[in-house]
Amino acid sequence: MDIKTVVRAGTLAVLVVSVGCGPSENARKEAERAAAAAAQARATTQAGEVIGARQEAQAQLDSARAAFLAKQTTIASKELKAAAAFTRTQADSATGTAKDALSNSAAELQRLATRVTKRSVKSVKTLDYAFARTQLAEAQYHHERALDAFQQAKPAAAGAELVMAADHFERALTDAGQTATEPAKQAIADARSVASKLASGAPVAQADLESALAAFEKQVQSVAATTTKLKS
Question: What is the pTM of this model?
Answer without folding.
Answer: 0.78
